[in-house]
Amino acid sequence: MGTNSVASMVVWEDGKMKKADYRRFKVKTVEGANDFASMHEVVKRRYGGSLSVREEKGLPLPDLILIDGGIGQLGAAIDALRNLGLHHVPIVGLAKAKGEKEERIYSPGIREPLILSPTSIASHLVQRIRDEAHRFAITYHRKLRGQALVTLRKPSVSNTGLKTKN
Q1: Is 39 helix (H, G, I), strand (E, B) or coil?
Q2: pLDDT at 165 over 60
Q3: Helix axis angle, 71-83 to 35-47, nearest 10°
């Protein structure tokens, strides 16, 4: 719905999820629901800064960036990396065609996606990573939404009209 827009980053390393390196992002500059602009902002924020700043934060460049989305989201992420001078970082997009079960891997400069069999080990791996990113983002979104609801519903003491007698 475009409210409390968030994104997440999960890390798969040495055959398992590395939760200490997960990051969550509140989308700051995008109004409403705009996947492409949100993807651009988050990739730029995550990989922005000098190499020494990224290393200080414990965020080295990955061996591969897996974007949740098709050609449009991948293009937005590639554009953000290019703007940062990181055009050499390997990146792919992962998406399903509407009504299809097969995962599609979109690669920069290759028109046709690689189609993964639903039963393949590769398909199960990328689905697991994507599902973890979704879980992490949804948890953060629910937290922000809950905080917003509490803030909206908090009664104002000065407007209660109550008086006390001593």
Answers
A1: helix
A2: no
A3: 30
First-to-last alpha carbon distance for the chain, in angstroms, is 50
Element containing residue 92 per DSSP (H, E): strand 91-96
Tens digit of pLDDT for each residue in 49-105? 766 666 677 667 899 999 999 999 999 999 999 999 998 999 999 998 888 888 999
**77 belongs to a structural domain:** yes
Contact in structure between 9 and 133 (CB atoms under 8 Å): yes
State which amino acid sits at residue 94.
Answer: L
Residue 105 within a domain: yes
Assign 156 to helix, strand or coil.
coil
Within a domain: 101: yes
* Helix, strand counts (H, E) of the chain: 4, 8
**Cα separation of 68 and 102, whole Å?**
14
Q: What is the CATH number of the domain that holds 61?
A: 3.30.420.340
> Could you tell me the pTM of the whole model?
0.80
Number of compact structural domains in the chain: 1
Q: Rounded to a whole number, what is the largest CA-CA distance in the chain?
A: 79
Quote the CA–CA distance of 23 and 145 in Å, as a whole number. Answer: 18
Evaluate whether 132 touches 23 at the Cβ level (below 8 Å).
no
Element (H, E) at 146: helix 121-153
